[in-house]
Amino acid sequence: MVHPSPLQPLARFAFALVALLALVGGPAVAQVTLKLGHVASADPKDNWQAGAQKFAELVEQRTRGAAKVQVFPGSQLGNDRDMAEGMRLGSVDFSLNAGVLSNFVPSLGLLEIPYIFRDVTHMRAVLAGPIGDELAGSLLKSGIRVLGWWERGPRQLTVNKPVAGIADVKGMKIRVPEIPVSVDAWRAFGTNPTPMAFGEVYTGLQQKVIDGQENPLAIIWSAKLYEVQKYLVRTNHVYGYVALAMSEKTFQKLSPELRDSIQEAAREATAFENRLVWDNEQQLAKDLQAKGMQFVDVDTTQFVAAAKATHANHAQRLGKDLYDRIVNTK
């Protein structure tokens, strides 16, 4: 008589457990690990970091662990340009990327023109409509897939001396992103615009290589620029976006099921981040003031007038028809 092995009941139990987990949709073993990078800090209060972490959580939930997203803040995967190039090559899977994408699709530079948007409602109507779809389609041809247009608070100027009007910024070295439109606009404002990777800004301000910079409140806070800048001037010159973007090479390697789950997670994360930005804006102002920054409400009329030349030049260069459609979007 052959006696059953004492391991056989355990094997049968394990098999039954696996079958039960599969039946009820239990967690699967992670098969794909994807990298998401951004230049903002790892501070959980930072909008980009919070949004990226939310996206990572949603991807893992929706794929039942078949895909995981690792978040690399603080330029760990490179600066904006590096990550955009990495997505095109397939070495970076996702990034939160903004104006530098205009280096690959020049017409995106129109979105960086100061005062092209009347307010955030205007920007939202443009990006959530046919124009946003067209721009995303153009970017896809260069190997970068837009999964969502994330909103940002308006960009503000920070400096170390009081600014009452546009005359007070004349000759200042202002760090700007590596975007032609931004360089031209700040030259029109009378400053000496200095393109620089964001990871170098704090040191540049500390060492007085530059006199000031411009960014939304969330970036000013997370980068601790209040330690090296005293005045925040409410210029509200750009209502900007950041694209939750994905390498098309990575996208094409995934199964249809994973692609759908990632896109669903991106839609939910986009709604989450866009709510978070505006929920946090007033608190960020209080936090920065508590750190010693003095907020200056400036008449933007002169800045708006000075930006008109930038509007005309870049509308002609990047597409007058598209420019008109953006400006006239209701």
Quick recap:
By secondary structure, the protein is α/β, with parallel strands linked by helices.
Lateral strand order in the biggest sheet: 7-6-8-5-9-11
- Supply the helix-strand structural class: alpha/beta
Radius of gyration: 23 Å
**How is the biggest beta sheet arranged?**
6 strands, mixed
Query: Please, how many helices?
Result: 13
Number of domains as seen in the coordinates: 2
| Fold-level CATH name of the largest domain | D-Maltodextrin-Binding Protein, domain 2
The percent range for strand residues is 15-25%
Number of strands: 11
Helical fraction:
40-55%
Which CATH first-tier class of the largest domain would you pick?
A: Alpha Beta
- Overall morphology: globular
CATH architecture of the largest domain: 3-Layer(aba) Sandwich
Can you give a write-up of this model?
By secondary structure, the protein is of the alpha/beta class. It has 2 domains: 165 residues, D-Maltodextrin-Binding Protein, domain 2 (3-Layer(aba) Sandwich), CATH 3.40.190.170; 124 residues, Bacterial extracellular solute-binding protein, family 7 (D-Maltodextrin-Binding Protein, domain 2, 3-Layer(aba) Sandwich). 46% of the residues lie in helices and 17% in strands. It contains 13 helices and 11 strands. The strands form 2 sheets. A 6-stranded mixed sheet has the order 7-6-8-5-9-11, with helices on both faces. A 5-stranded mixed sheet has the order 2-1-3-10-4, with helices on both faces. Helix 6 links the parallel strand 6 and strand 7. Helix 2 packs antiparallel against helix 10 and helix 12 crosses helix 13. The longest helix has 35 residues. It is globular. About 5% of the residues have low confidence.
